[in-house]
Automatic annotation (TrEMBL):
<keyword id="KW-0479">Metal-binding</keyword>
<keyword id="KW-0862">Zinc</keyword>
<keyword id="KW-0472">Membrane</keyword>
<dbReference type="GO" id="GO:0046872">
    <property type="term" value="F:metal ion binding"/>
</dbReference>
<dbReference type="GO" id="GO:0006284">
    <property type="term" value="P:base-excision repair"/>
</dbReference>
<keyword id="KW-1133">Transmembrane helix</keyword>
<protein>
    <submittedName>
        <fullName>DNA-3-methyladenine glycosylase I</fullName>
        <ecNumber>3.2.2.20</ecNumber>
    </submittedName>
</protein>
<keyword id="KW-0326">Glycosidase</keyword>
<dbReference type="InterPro" id="IPR005019">
    <property type="entry name" value="Adenine_glyco"/>
</dbReference>
<feature type="transmembrane region" description="Helical">
    <location>
        <begin position="173"/>
        <end position="191"/>
    </location>
</feature>
<dbReference type="InterPro" id="IPR052891">
    <property type="entry name" value="DNA-3mA_glycosylase"/>
</dbReference>
<keyword id="KW-0812">Transmembrane</keyword>
<keyword id="KW-0378">Hydrolase</keyword>
<dbReference type="Pfam" id="PF03352">
    <property type="entry name" value="Adenine_glyco"/>
</dbReference>
<dbReference type="GO" id="GO:0008725">
    <property type="term" value="F:DNA-3-methyladenine glycosylase activity"/>
</dbReference>
<dbReference type="InterPro" id="IPR011257">
    <property type="entry name" value="DNA_glycosylase"/>
</dbReference>
<feature type="binding site">
    <location>
        <position position="194"/>
    </location>
    <ligand>
        <name>Zn(2+)</name>
    </ligand>
</feature>
Amino acid sequence: MRGRPDMGADETPDGVIIGDDGLARPAWAASDPLMRDYYDTEWGMPVTDERGMFERLTLEAFQSGLSWATILRKRPAFRHAFADFEPDAVARFDDADFDRLMADAAIVRNKLKIRAAIRNAQATIDLRPDGGLADFVWSYRPETTPAPRTMDELPTTSPESVALSKDLKKRGFVFVGPTTMYALMSAIGMVDLHLVDSHRRGTSGIWR
């Protein structure tokens, strides 16, 4: 494959960038230290506990329309504001808590997303008799995963994310559209969206 005319000296023809440590990453994870650490240690690694899944689902909803870097920088504040994403605690949030969150400049102050987080906490609790949120989400794991070589090849939805979105809504969840659910699926390793040439490809232990 021929390189692009604007390809940087440390960028491969497939769009990954070779870092000063000799490791290949996509451009979005190659420069910002926070994003680079997130990419190297968290993104695409399995999340199988209820609290962790609720946090990821909530933050993916808050990310809608924003950059993930914005959410990641605010994550410590989100954790503090939302009781470390313990569903039982968030489900008990009342009008005073809502007002507190809307006044908190350290998080994303969007009334619909804040109310969605509280509602989804109760929906998470309601799923426990049927195995819980983590098992519910993982039950939509596809049989195969994409193998993108460039950012242009990255899908944004799948039949499984559409089905997961539909069924979560039936269970009372909101802000769980197919694109948001596909982002969740990639974040927790249900699909491997690391570029083929990335040093992280296949490191989740789920896909080879």
